[in-house]
Here is the input.
Amino acid sequence: MMPATIVLTGRVAAIDTYESSNGSAITKIRIPNDVGFGDRKTTTWWTATLFGKQAEAAAKYLQKGSWATITGEPGVREYTNKQGEIKTVAEVQASSWGFVGNKSDNGDGGGYNRTPANPRNPKPRQAPAPMTEAEFNDEDLPF
Here is the structure.
């Protein structure tokens, strides 16, 4: 049976990097996932764990507030906190991560501008004006 895969996309709420006992980098990234709205809105906090070179790169380029996407294997873990309460944690063993949006979306310089600049036409294209009822003809429809 193939393991399940999950893709998380959102703003990084927290990022923490440390070294394992063998000197390999480990980076943990917290991303909230909101479902619903108003009084029915619930938030699940996911902790994604990256290892090695990917952990080093994430630590270098991501920071709190950056938009990121993380792909990996989901899991749930329970633990008992210092007060004796049982807590449940949603985790992702990350296999890859990436940027979402461009630099101006992140506001932190951590993203890539995926829209190349065009020095000959610096103004963005505008959508054509909508057709008026007088201009619209049913015979123009392809179906």
Remarks:
- Residues 6-110 form a domain with the OB fold (Dihydrolipoamide Acetyltransferase, E2P) fold (CATH 2.40.50.140).
- The first helix runs from residue 52 to 61.
- The chain has one domain: 6-110.
- The CA atoms of residues 20 and 26 lie 7 Å apart.
